[in-house]
Structure formats: structure tokens, C-alpha cells
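Researcher: Please translate sequence to C-alpha cells.
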Amino acid sequence: MRVLVLSSGGKDSSLALWWSICQGWTISSVVTVSIEGEDSWMFQIPGTKLAELQCKDMDLQHQIITVSGEGEVEVEELLEGLRPLIEAHSIDALVCGALRSEYQRRRIDRICEELAIHSFSPLWHHDAERHMHELLECGMEMWMVSVSCDGLNEDWLGRRLDIEAFDELSKLSSKFRFSIDGEGGEFETIITSGPHMNGRIVFEAEHQWSGNRGHLNITAMKLE
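Model: Translation complete:
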């Protein structure tokens, strides 16, 4: 099986990438979607520049497809960006880290149908708490790069999600009723090391905070 993997460099797409490697599949390229606008219904924006460095560490090809971030327009832009990769490299399937977003998965499935390839979402409907434990247990080093819900303040920006932080996050999710895996957009992450990587990424970042939400602006990063 020769596949492309959609990856923002965050926890879910990184786990989907690791899953693909464990299948013994050939990863033709990792594809990161870059958003021109300030928002997207489909894709992560903060911290995605780390995906290229992750691929360098893993000796994988990396491709960036730039989209507008505008509703259905970005879906068509992704489709057209994928088309030459599919044709040039005889791709069999596209893998993504979708968890529970019907909006996202249906559109990825539609893209794959149009391109006549298989669509794989190996994390689909994973139990939220079990999913987070799996990430921790397999050694994913996770950092929060954005927060946007009640219960998560600026102190969570740039915080590593280790066991201690996860226990605290679990209590806050129960109190403020947000998804502990961030699937509702409550937070987003980046991965700096894990079972799929050989080394570790270190980074520097600035806080961009506005009232009750914010994100990290990564200013420097390197492989160790």
C-alpha cells in the first residue's frame, strides 16, 4: 500500500502517521495543509510549521498544500492540490487523523472518491480518554499550541501534556464540560517526539492571547 498522510504535526495526525508506519505501508509523502486565512473548518493552523521538521527527522517527503480556509472552497483546493501527487506517485490511499468530526471525514472521503483512492481514518470514534492515554503511553510528546474554551487559561499555552497535566486536564474537562481530547476545538497540539521519530524537536514561541483564547506563534525550532 502506497499512501499519503495528512498531518498538521499535531497529536491525532501524528498517531495516524505512526499507525500507517506500523501497517508496513510505504509513506510516499506527508501532506500538510497551510491556511492563507485566519480560520478553517477543516484544518489546524497553529504550529503546523513543525510538520516539515518532523518529516526531516523521519526521512519522509513533505508536501505543503495551501488553501484559503473558506468553507467548501478549501476542500476543492485540497482536492486539486492532491491530484498531481496521486497521479505522479501511484497513490493507493489517503490517511488522516479524524476523530469524530463528520464534517471533516465526509469531505476527506469525498476527495478520495473523486481521486479514486481509499480513505483511512484509523482513529475514528476512539474513546476520548482512552485515546489520550494511548498517546501518552506510546510516548508522544505533546504541547498545547492553542486553547479556546472555558477552563483553559493562558497558562496552558506552551504546556507539555504529560501525565500530571493530563490529570489536571481531565478534572477541568469534567468541570467545564469540554472534550478531553480537544476534538471540539478546545485546544490544539504539536508533537515534538514520539515512536515515529528518531530525534526530538525543541522550539521557542511567543504567546498570542486575546481575552479567553490564544495560540503560540513559533519563532524558532530545531532538531536535537
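Researcher: Any highlights?
Model: The domain at 138-223 is CATH 3.90.1490.10 (putative n-type atp pyrophosphatase, domain 2).
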